[in-house]
UniProtKB/TrEMBL annotation:
Highest taxon of the lineage: Bacteria
Gene3D superfamilies from the UniProt entry: 2.60.120.1390
Short name of one Pfam family: DUF2961
Record-given protein name: Uncharacterized protein
Matches recorded under InterPro entries: DUF2961 (IPR021345)
Amino acid sequence: MYWDNAKKLAVSGPFAEFFGNSLGIFKLFETQLFAKARSYNRFIPMPYKSSGRIEIVNQSSEILMFHYKVNFLKVPKQDDDMLYFHSHWRRELNTELEKDFEILPYVEGSSRYIGTHIGVIGNKLYEKIWFGEGEIKVNINGDDEFPTLVSTGTEDYIGSGWE
C-alpha cells in the first residue's frame, strides 16, 4: 500500500499475515479491528490526502481467484496532523543467542501503536516445546538505557505460556 504518491511502501507483507494468519495456519478470531471467519476483514482507518494505492501480487505458481472490496469515506480535507497507516512485516528463521529480537524497529515521528502479531515455530532441538522466555522491552521517545515498559516475556505477550 502506498499513500499520497509515495515511492516507499507504507504496508508490505504476505496477504494472510496482514490479516492475522501466521505460519500458514488459519484461525478464527475477531476484535474491534479485525474479523476473520470465511473472509478477511479489517476495520482500521487508513487515511490519505490525495491518493491511496493497493497492490496485490501473486508470487505463487498457481492461478488464484481473488475477490476484494474496499470501502472508503470521502472527506473534504484531512487534518494537517493526520496519521498514516503503516505496517511492518518480516520473517526471521532463527534468533541469535544473546541478541534481542526486535519486534518493531525504531519509529520516528508522531504515531499510535495498535498492536503486534507474532508467529513462532519451535526449534526442533527442543522437541516442539517453546518456553517463550525473554522479556519484552518497549522503548519510547529515546529511552534506550531503561525501557519505558518491561514485561515477563513472550510467553505472556503471545499467550503460549497458558496452553
